[in-house]
Amino acid sequence: MMIIPSKIHQAAALLWIIIVTMVTLPHVGAQVAVRLEMNKTGYLVNEPIVATVYITNHAGRELELKTQNGRPWMDFHITSRGRGVPKAIRTDYGAVIIPTGQTMARKVTLNSSYALGNMGNYVCQVYVNTPGPARESSYSSNRAHITVSSGRVIWNQQVGIPEAAGEIREY
Predict the structure, then answer these.
(1) Long-range pairs for 35-38 at CB < 8 Å and ≥24 separation?
(2) What pLDDT digit, counting tens, does each position of 3-26 carry?
């Protein structure tokens, strides 16, 4: 009969380890908080589309973000109608150091790096890659929705130019 209590204790200890592991796992992903804000939701074609990325370090140590092995520390995922928007150029965001418990903000003009010259609705999300294995060290932001349109004419007038007879300009 001594064998049964020993097995119960082992099972209880194993169950306790599993419970503690499951309770603490959600906190592992919260070491870095990433938030994406757009300065507005509607843009005209070729107007600068500025995104602000806020990164908060909850890791308990200083966090150094930099490109490693060709993997950028910050990467945007932009879609339109369910398809990814390609990068126009590769962007180097430089290295940044975020002290423990601090938040860093970085402004990025998206249409200088991505092909956002077409009218349509876009969904933007940013990923911050911290040092470590690729799957374990990527943190994503919220999604931001924007619309790019051609705009519309609200006023139009033709004006003659006094210095140039017969020349008319339209404003």
Answers:
(1) 35/141, 35/142, 36/124, 36/125, 36/126, 36/141, 36/142, 36/143, 36/144, 37/144, 38/124, 38/144, 38/146
(2) 556 677 676 666 666 665 554 444
